[in-house]
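Task: encode each sequence below as structure tokens.

Item 1
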Amino acid sequence: MRKFFQEIKADLKFKTAGPGQKLSEPSRAPREKPKAEVAPKPRQAPTDEAQRAAAAALARLELKPKGKAPSASQEAIKSQVRKELMAEAAASEKGLSMEEKQEEEGAAAPSVSGVYFICPLTGAIVRKDQKEKQLREAIQAYFSVDPVAASIMEIHTFNKDREKVRVCVETMAKYLDNIYLHPEEEKYRKIKLQNKVFQERISCLEGTHKFFQAVGFETKTLPVPGQETMEEFYVLKEEVLSRLEELKERKEQLLSSEPVRAQLHRQLALFQPSPAAARFELPHDFFNLTAEELRREQRLRTEAVEKASMLRTRAMREKDEQREMRKYNYTLLRVRFPDGYILQGTFYARESVSVLYNFVREALRDDWLPFELLGPGGLKLTDENLAFNECGLVPSALLSLAWDAAVMADVEAAAEEQRSPLRPELLARAQTLS
């Protein structure tokens, strides 16, 4: 180590001699015999990938600010942190991450606020996630009006297994039929509650016990013939025997009833002419996905573009199409009229095109006017039996309406003044499409 520093010191002395002084050369090791020079290999040109990487690096360097940026003060840092925390708290209230919050800040307002339903018993309009609760409350309230009808509604509406419901109501109808056909037979007027058939087919379903009580059965504890034990029975009240025709009607009502279903609210809207007609922003209600699955689908949208450019077999394409069809329960459709007005409505994804034709006719001043609907790309929707998801009209689509030219010419010639084919009450509440 000492020898190394002495050589450095001698070298410095050699380089720093003053004017007029002779530079003393430091002791050097004997030179080796020079080797034969080898011709350098020709340098290869950089690849296209390397050139792109170099250009990107150069662009980043040019974007960097010159010189050292002044450091932020402590107060400025605290202020920025405070803002970020407040923004994050606001995003958390909506169940979104900061990244998703930033994505939403640049998004347009939803085209509709959600999917809504109309309760057929009360006429109340509720959101999709509230429809079953509304139905339960409405049916429960109907018990004060007609307890038999209300119990039948419960049986058909809230038991989801349709095969179990069918077996149940047929067995219940058989009990009532035996009473109607054999009113003098006491054995038919009693139903043992612990009977295996009753337990497996009837007792396990919602609303069945309320039905028996509503048509005139009461619970009694009776001795079982041949046994010392007592068991519970449904026993028909004596006064019901004088109203056997009414009991028969209740049996027919039980067999013919259908589940009570909330009706999809179309949310009919008319918009003034707008260049934004083809832009849709749909809420989560339109997707048959959880919120997390929906976010994942949104992040993977870019992959769909890459997929479209790949060579795929017909089977692969059909599989992807089937998957897309199952993803959506609803669709938001807009129909643009020749004068630019836009009619909008919400539909089930599996409803037929004929429903849309009827929807448009109901909005016309004269519903007999012939017209055609053209899908995206100008394709005529001639087969009205096809479902929207089969036509590629989910989860949203903008269609165009075309009048029969000859009929419209006659209508315009006969009319004293030019008027819109849409109903006046719709035109009066036309909105501006944001």
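Item 2
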Amino acid sequence: MRRFARVALLCLGCGVCSLLYGLSQLALSLEQEPGGSGGRERQARDPATPGARWQAGSAGRGEAGTGRYDYMKTHPSEKMHLAVVACGERLEETVTMLRSAIIFSIKPLHFHIFAEDQLHESFKDILDEFPYEGKVNYTLYPITFPSESAAEWKKLFKPCASQRLFLPLILKNVDSLLYVDTDILFLRPIDDIWSFLGKFNSTQIAAMAPEHEEPRIGWYNRFARHPYYGVTGINSGVMLMNMTRIRRKYFKNDMTPVRLQWGEILMPLLKKYKLNITWGDQDLLNIMFFHNPESLYVFPCQWNYRPDHCIYGSNCKAAEEEGIFILHGNRGVYHDDKQPTFRAVYEAIKNYSFGDDLVHSLLQPLELELQKTTHTYCGRVYKVFIKQLTKSIRDLYARRSKGR
């Protein structure tokens, strides 16, 4: 009997210990802040929480997390967050970019669209007609700058361009974010660039591509009157950010021996360098990462392929080998005849109808158009424009076949 009593007491003790351990783990999980590591997203209670000093303090129709512009809710840990800033005549271009993101991406997407008030209804009308297939929702926001310096930020470079600098301060409940310019086209799933978050080391907070591959045609190394990152500077048209790390980091700088946080360093940088910068907020980012090079992850040029990579001869070797992953049509090349290769890709994606066969309705007509551009430098390497696109379409159909 004593032996049975001892066994019973031992089992009871183990049960009590297990219960106490479970309760302690539950309490710990409730106390810890979600996110903070590369690629893991925080629970978004409020998609945008601008501070009291911000101009136009609400977050559009997605204010306070009510999500009147949010559709097809998905589990936060599965979502990838994409941000874009659209002003002026950029509505069509932005929508085309979003279309390219939807076509190939695998995991659910949340679009954070910062736009002038007069564009909100147009965005809503267009995006509500997209066949999201359960994988996309979006929130519209007004353009917002710190109220005490709004005028200075608005006139920096192009209207609204510097909005991207304030995304970590506005989207307080978003852990990681991919920011892109409106003139971006995805030729590969966003999932693949999103995966770079998992490759960040413990000091890296953001990822961008070099401004140039070839120093002989580089702008920063030949003309810049301010510090810049690396040999040829960085381009901010495609910027992957661990925003939790950005908000927590104290940055080295050349204004004070004291390290400053993101929200503290922006205005002093502008005041010091505003007479020396040409490309606005991109120049400020170059200055910041010049002083904090350990904080930047640099991804290859095929993730931000621009006209400079082919108009002086092909100088993005990675794209020659693997194709273009993200096309960046800066300098308005989607809308003029200067670079018909870029314009052909833009028109093909803009005119593609969701649900149509991608090979016959997108890839084959595009290749025919690209073959007409071989009289240009970029047209001579037109196959790099469809190499990855062909693979993305093949992979998409393979996934669909497995899902049946």
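Check on item 2: Residues 253 and 389 are 41 Å apart (CA to CA). The first strand starts at residue 80 and ends at 86.
End of task.
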